[in-house]
Design brief:
2 copies of one chain form a homodimer.
Chain A lengths: L4 H22 L6 H12 L5 H8 L3 H13 L3 E6 L2 E9 L1 H22 L4 H20 L10
Antiparallel strand pairs in A: 1-2
The first copy, chain A, binds a DNA duplex (30 and 30 nucleotides) through helix 4 and strand 2.
Protein name (chains A, B): MarR family transcriptional regulator
InterPro entries (chains A, B): HTH_MarR-typ, WH-like_DNA-bd_sf, WH_DNA-bd_sf
Keywords (chains A, B): DNA-binding, Transcription, Transcription regulation
DNA sequence: AACAATTATTTGCAAATTGCAAGTAATTGC
DNA sequence: GCAATTACTTGCAATTTGCAAATAATTGTT
């Protein structure tokens, strides 16, 4: 029972990574895993700048700048100057980008439902509470697990 | 409360990824995240072949072959032909590789302890049980989350 | 035993991804 | 009004990637 903590988490996050990879390939748009993460983050932040998203994802900003360019070419995200500070580019999903993100999201949730189908209702609730707890706890721990933006 | 399942997991795995990245940089050997994962996997499998580890990590085998080469140059892993089938190369950690892996492992566990320090003993136990449950459940779900080797 | 088929791994190459250094453009502070 | 800062972009040059093809060892077939 007293399994190494790290092992437990390592296995879990590896599996979740595979799921993520599968889903973004399955969505028909031939999106890379990195691109999928970008779409996710742009969708979930409020009027994010390039800098903000890059930091959230822990990517070098010059690399990220180019990733944004390629997603714009694919017509999945768009970039508009912030009217209040024209140095800043605000990112958003295009209609097509929203569709792709929604597609991925649905697949992920479907897979996750599948995973939870092996559990009782009580177990499922416990697991959800646990992940919520972990997220909160990791956010508190300033030493690690977060980027400057949290 | 009824947060999107995927969101919950996405945030968690992102955070865990940062932790992983931090740890392998902090270990003094300037190991990349990919290299850290390879060390972990080689250590945890029994006499793994190149093919096996590549599959576990979901990496293309040609790419992986080269990653192995660079880790051999760094004197962190070694490669010996399987006496029963000399096509197969069996991977193992060198003494130095073991040290690096142990170093990373300790750091990870230390960070994780830190995360758990924000919880009560009951909460901690619940979280551990939950992750164990998830791992089992993801393994059962053949549709996703695993490579051919599980 | 001979030789096609399979399996494990390695290279050639060309494309994609990365990050540092240096650049531009807009804003802030003194 | 001009130096300092901030947000972002480009020029490289190095690394990483994966497909196609090669090599080497083993297995199956006759």
């Amino acid at each position: 029972m007293e399994q190494n903590l790290r092992e437990l988490f390592q296995v879990f996050s590896r599996r979740f990574g595979f799921l993520n990879k599968d889903c973004c390939q399955a969505c028909g748009h031939n999106i890379s895993l990195v691109q999928s993460h970008i779409l996710y983050e742009v969708e979930h932040q409020y009027q994010p700048s390039i800098q903000q998203v890059a930091e959230s994802l822990g990517t070098d900003i010059t690399t990220f700048s180019r990733q944004v360019q390629s997603l714009i070419k694919l017509n999945l995200i768009s970039k508009k100057p912030d009217p209040k500070d024209r140095r800043i580019s605000i990112l958003s999903l295009t209609e097509e980008g929203k569709e792709v993100a929604e597609n991925i999201n649905q697949q992920m949730n479907q897979y996750l439902d599948d995973v939870f189908s092996n559990m009782s209702q009580e177990e499922k609730e416990m697991v959800i509470r646990s992940i919520q707890l972990l997220n909160k706890s990791m956010q508190k721990t300033t030493k690690c697990c977060t980027t400057p933006l949290g």
